[in-house]
Amino acid sequence: MTEKQENILNAALKLFATEGYASTSTSKVAKEAGVSEGLIFRHFKNKEGLLNVIREKSSEAGKAMMADIVMTSDPKEVIRKILELPYYIEKENYEMWRLTYALKWQTDNYDTSYSDPVKVVLREAFSKLGYEDPAAEAEIILMLMDGAATAFLLHEPENKLDILMALKLKYKL
Predict the structure, then answer these.
(1) Is 90 helix (H, G, I), strand (E, B) or coil?
(2) Is the dihedral of CA 123, 125, 130, 136 positive or negative?
(3) What pLDDT shows up at residue 118?
């Protein structure tokens, strides 16, 4: 990918994440990227093409994060790693994750390809640990992590590590 294409994608990501996908025009992306609007159409066809490339990159990042968890065999370690995910989102990735979360509400197309395997691994972990309803426990953890990620991406609570510690204590990790 060329430097100009990267600039276009970075500008689109920034604007989609902060102003919303529907509210961001290709002309605004072009201005932010310092390129002509025609260049966007040449490389990405349209605004949806831009979004698709960003989603693809986001999906790859999500799958990479989840790969380590899926390969972990110790059930307590699986749960610990999943609980920690939203607590250690790197600041430079906030825009990507803000957009990913915002798109759940802005479009009907939400990619769960990287979280579905984690749900399976979580169910197995809770099953190995003898929980009465492993599927329900897995859903609870995923909901907690979804809520935590949303909260951290919008505002960072001062006591976020205390919250993580409370979760680890709750699950005896």
Answers:
(1) coil
(2) negative
(3) 86
CA distance 173 to 171: 6
Q: Where are the domains of the chain?
A: 1-45, 56-170
- The structure tokens listed for 96 are 């990507």
Residue indicated by tokens 């609570």: 157
Cβ-contact 40, 50 below 8 angstroms: yes
Cβ neighbours for 131, distance < 8 A, ≥ 6 positions apart = 137
pLDDT digits (tens, 9 = 90+) for 118-129: 899 999 999 999
Cβ proximity of 43 and 8 under 8 Å: yes
pTM for the whole structure = 0.79
The residue behind tokens 């799958």 is 63
Q: Residues 145-163, buried b or exposed e (16+ Cβ, 10 A)?
A: beebbbebbeeeeeeeeee
CATH architecture for the domain at 1-45: Orthogonal Bundle (1.10)
